[in-house]
Amino acid sequence: MRCVNNGTCEFKGQMFDNWSEIPTNLTGCDQHCYCESGNVECRPACPPVLALPPPTLPCHPAQARLVPIPEDECCKHWACVQPADGDKDIGPIVNNEQPNKTKENTVGEEEDAAGVFYPTFDGKPVKEKGEKEKPSKKPGKGQLDINDIKY
């Protein structure tokens, strides 16, 4: 006499019926497992989450937090969250300056550029159209020095 496999699965010492879901308290939040034809099949439980908040959020990135997805105890997503009154780690979130307006300095006042990031190759601010780089004292390729010319 031969026994026919009815599709049940064993997972961590417990038996599960074919096509049944394995509880999260056994699998953890990392994976979603179920019994399929005698085999335990597992897939990632949550969609991947970016390391930084997406630019499509309707708030400043400093207000974005990873929070649990509603109706899901495991998965998280980026959402806009208002800071708690006593939360000092976030710092000022409100920006009162109008976007797309240039800030004018008064005479003798200098802008504080500490901590400013410029998305250029060298990390320096972009040169204005009228600005030119200072001439180098060393001759570059193709340039002749006055001492190189022989008469």
From TrEMBL:
This is VWFC domain-containing protein. GO terms for cellular component: extracellular space. Residues 124-136 have a biased composition (Basic and acidic residues). One of its GO terms (biological process) is cell adhesion. Residues 7-81 form the VWFC domain. Keywords: Signal. It comes from Megaselia scalaris (Humpbacked fly). The keyword Membrane does not apply. Residues 88-151 are annotated as: Disordered. InterPro entries: CCN, VWF_dom.
